[in-house]
Write a structure and sequence with these properties.
Blueprint (H helix, E strand, L loop, with lengths): L2 E3 L2 E3 L2 H34 L16 E6 L5 E6 L3 E8 L2 E6 L14
Antiparallel strand pairs: 1-2, 3-4, 5-6
Length: 112
């Protein structure tokens, strides 16, 4: 005689218990994955931020163009500015500055 549990219809109690146990295992594994992802988030929070591709001082950013082969076939490419992580504080945070030519006081950057 079929037994109905909400939308779940089974032939006997043993089948119902097996399905409930399978669902409980799925919930347990989902909770374990959530704990794992929470641990990953804590590790990622401790890492330094990814280096920007934009100079924090002058705003220089990547330019786009083409590579040209010997046969003049054009393929897309990106010209990144020479950014280096330097120990200066801009807005109370470490900054990435372009360093070609090496920035000295008033040199190497456009005035902001």
């Amino acid at each position: 005689m079929p037994v109905a549990f909400g939308v779940l219809t089974v032939d006997n109690v043993a089948q119902a218990e097996a399905r409930i146990e399978k669902a409980a295992d799925a919930v347990r594994s989902a909770l374990e994955m959530a704990d794992l992802f929470a641990g990953c988030a804590q590790v990622l929070a401790k890492l330094p931020p990814a280096m920007s591709k934009i100079c924090a001082y002058c705003g220089k950013k990547p330019a786009f163009g083409n590579n040209r082969s010997h046969s003049m076939v054009a393929t897309k490419r990106r010209f990144d500015p020479n950014l280096q992580r330097v120990r200066v504080l801009l807005d109370a945070r470490p900054a990435c500055l372009c360093v070609y030519p090496l920035p000295e006081v008033g040199q190497g950057h456009q005035s902001v």
